[in-house]
From TrEMBL:
<dbReference type="GO" id="GO:0046872">
    <property type="term" value="F:metal ion binding"/>
</dbReference>
<dbReference type="GO" id="GO:0030973">
    <property type="term" value="F:molybdate ion binding"/>
</dbReference>
<keyword id="KW-0732">Signal</keyword>
<protein>
    <submittedName>
        <fullName>Molybdate ABC transporter substrate-binding protein</fullName>
    </submittedName>
</protein>
<dbReference type="InterPro" id="IPR050682">
    <property type="entry name" value="ModA/WtpA"/>
</dbReference>
<dbReference type="Pfam" id="PF13531">
    <property type="entry name" value="SBP_bac_11"/>
</dbReference>
<keyword id="KW-0479">Metal-binding</keyword>
<dbReference type="GO" id="GO:0015689">
    <property type="term" value="P:molybdate ion transport"/>
</dbReference>
<dbReference type="InterPro" id="IPR005950">
    <property type="entry name" value="ModA"/>
</dbReference>
<comment type="similarity">
    <text>Belongs to the bacterial solute-binding protein ModA family.</text>
</comment>
Length: 109
């Protein structure tokens, strides 16, 4: 269980009831794989990851996370491809880039 799921369970007062039943994975993708293969009954994964595997997993509910989950987009200061990086960032922030992100379950910044 990652920090977002644990925090939400603790906030809801459910952590003590489920803690002993939890298994740890290396990352959220491994959790998603376990669910997709039927090795576990349920798992906490990002909605965007579940959406990418919607043919094999079903999203049961959304866990409220204080402050939301952010995916930063940044350019490395010492990039040898600064112009391309700036163009990519501009594309991601454009209407077309935002439409692609929304289609895959991401919200706007």
């Amino acid at each position: 269980v990652g920090r977002y799921a644990r925090g939400a369970l603790q906030q809801a007062g459910l952590w003590p009831a489920v803690q002993a039943k939890m298994i740890s994975t290396q990352n959220v993708r491994q959790s998603l794989d376990y669910v997709a293969r039927g090795e576990v009954d349920a798992g906490f994964v990002y909605a965007t990851d579940a959406q990418a595997m919607s043919a094999r997993v079903q999203r049961a509910f959304q866990v409220p996370v204080a402050g939301g989950i952010a995916y930063p987009l940044a350019m490395v200061k010492t990039s040898r491809n600064a112009a391309e990086a700036k163009r990519f960032i501009a594309f991601v922030r454009s209407a077309q880039g935002q439409a692609i992100l929304h289609r895959h379950g991401f919200g706007s910044p």
